[in-house]
Specification:
Elements (H helix, E strand, L loop, with lengths): L6 H6 L13 H6 L4 E5 L2 E4 L4 E4 L2 H4 L8 H13 L11 H13 L6 E5 L2 H18 L7 E5 L8 H6 L3 H4 L8 E4 L5 H4 L15 H9 L4 E6 L15 H12 L2 E5 L13 H5 L5 E4 L11 E5 L1 H7 L19 H16 L5 H14 L7 E7 L2 E6 L8 H13 L1 E2 L1 E3 L2 E4 L7 H16 L3
Parallel strand pairs: 3-13, 5-6, 5-7, 7-8, 8-9
Antiparallel strand pairs: 1-2, 2-3, 4-10, 9-10, 11-12, 12-15, 14-15
This protein binds 3-[O-phosphonopyridoxyl]--amino-benzoic acid.
3-[O-phosphonopyridoxyl]--amino-benzoic acid (PXG) binds next to α3 and α6.
Length: 445
């Protein structure tokens, strides 16, 4: 919406020039900004007072919906009780409690939890834990990592190195010694498949080729998103994750699942690992951990990995790693309140209940003009649009802007539209989301 014509809006707006916006076309945005001023439940409110249905849970993170009083109260209480205390060589109760609560939700065995402040920090932490673990076992030569094309693992140097998005890698240097599995996106064989694709499990066997090339004893870990999120919702082909697990076991490689998006109920199970029945050695978490209210991430590791590192002189720091805000009291309070909501409202399995309605609504887009593929799993979905001739990405961008104008928030990457609403969404709201999205797609040239 071009609000430049509205003097009241323009005069209420802050100066937009100083904030260098992340992952944003800054110049384009500032010419025609989309500003959100409040949020409650399933809805955002824009600066001009319009309600917008949140079809993306913010950035895949507001799983319990917006403005949750339980979290706000816990945060306020905590700020007044203990605003901050270090977790280096001293501690305070909340992160201990929180780690115990997280360990009740994670797959059996993954019950040692390290705290970070974001998904990117969780990824880099997980990679470091993998290196430290092998070193502690006397296999310090295992320094390589294997990621996957189209993978997104945040923006740290570790994350962009194992990640496979060209735009994340083009400008920056990456770590040496990283190889990539092929991605699993094969619209020719799998287009309009509901849930997991039938074809493509054999892409996991590429790990054998990578191992043969570099030598198994030089590789520390393999990291994948169980369902690739940012690359446009790519569920793993049937049998694929199982094969990765088998091959990692065969060659002594740690398997890391990046569950920053898939964690906390997005798939219909607490974690994708449980949904697919494949247990990694390490998992990375963030986003839904605090319902996005206060930044926080975590890494859950197998107990044996943790215990292997608990060696050396008793006074020695076992893992030379941590953040000023690891286990921050306010973030921990927010996370504990969030996990309470998830439990009381059974949100971590709600996506499984809603998934048939969600799937049917999404796949009704098949046959619509411009639509070339639809994918879904749990409460995640993607619709691919044919790129406009000579202008790739423009249809995607226009769809996002149109939806914002007409009442729904969706995410787009190129010409792929991704939807992933808060897990509290109702069936009529799912219908509304697809109505707004459908009208936006119909309006495209
Ligand atoms: N791993 C995964 C799988 C992610 O999706 C990160 C790590 C990094 O998290 P932080 O908290 O450092 O941003 C992410 C982040 C999008 C989108 O629209 C996705 C993310 C972030 C912003 C936008 O797909 N994922």
């Amino acid at each position: 919406m071009n609000t430049a014509a509205s003097p009241s809006l323009a005069s209420n707006r802050p100066d937009l020039s100083a904030f260098w916006m992340p992952f944003t076309a800054n110049r384009q945005f500032k010419l025609d900004p989309r500003l959100i001023v409040s949020a409650k439940g399933m809805y955002y409110t824009t600066e001009d007072g319009r309600e917008i249905l949140d079809g993306s849970a913010g950035l895949w993170c507001v799983n319990a919906g917006h403005g949750r009083a339980e979290i706000a109260n816990a945060v306020q209480q905590q700020l007044l009780t203990l605003d901050y205390a270090p977790s280096f060589q001293m501690g305070h109760p909340l992160p201990f409690q929180l780690a115990t609560e997280i360990a009740k939700l994670t797959p059996p065995g993954l019950d040692r939890v390290f705290f970070t402040n974001s998904g990117s920090e969780s990824v880099d932490t997980a990679l470091k834990i993998a290196l430290a673990y092998h070193r502690a076992r006397g296999e310090g030569q295992r320094t390589r990592f294997v990621g996957r094309e189209r993978g997104y693992h945040g923006v740290g140097f570790g994350g962009i190195s194992v990640g496979g998005l060209v735009n994340n890698r083009r400008t920056f240097v990456t770590l040496p010694g990283v190889d990539h599995l092929p991605h699993t996106h094969e619209p020719k064989r799998n287009a309009f498949q509901r849930g997991q694709p039938e074809y493509g499990a054999e892409h996991a066997d590429e790990l054998e080729r990578i191992v043969a090339l570099h030598g198994a004893d030089t590789i520390a870990a393999v990291i994948v998103e169980p369902v690739a999120g940012s690359a446009g919702v790519l569920p793993p082909p049937k049998g694929y994750l199982e094969r990765l697990r088998t091959l990692c076991d065969k060659h002594g490689l740690l398997l890391i699942f990046d569950e920053v998006i898939t964690g906390f109920g997005r798939t219909g199970a607490p974690f994708a690992s449980q949904y697919f029945g494949v247990t990694p050695d390490i998992m990375t978490l963030a986003k839904g951990l605090t319902n996005a209210s206060v930044p926080m991430g975590a890494v859950a590791a197998r107990r044996e990995i943790h215990d292997t590192l608990m060696t050396g002189a008793p006074g020695a720091i076992e893992l030379f790693h941590g953040f000023t805000y690891s286990g921050h009291p306010v973030a921990s309070a927010a996370a504990l309140a969030t996990l309470g909501i998830y439990e009381r409202e059974k949100l971590l399995t709600r996506a499984a209940t809603l998934s048939p309605t969600w799937e049917a609504g999404l796949h009704a887009f098949r046959g619509r003009r411009h639509v070339t593929d639809v994918r879904n799993l749990g409460l995640m979905g993607a619709i691919d649009l044919a790129p406009r001739d000579g202008a790739p990405g423009v249809r995607g961008y226009e769809t996002m802007v149109k939806c914002f104008q007409t009442g729904a928030l969706v995410r787009t990457t190129g010409d792929t539209i991704a939807v992933s609403p808060p897990l509290i969404i109702r069936e009529d709201e799912i219908a509304r989301l697809f109505e707004v999205l459908g009208a936006a797609i119909d309006s495209l040239d």
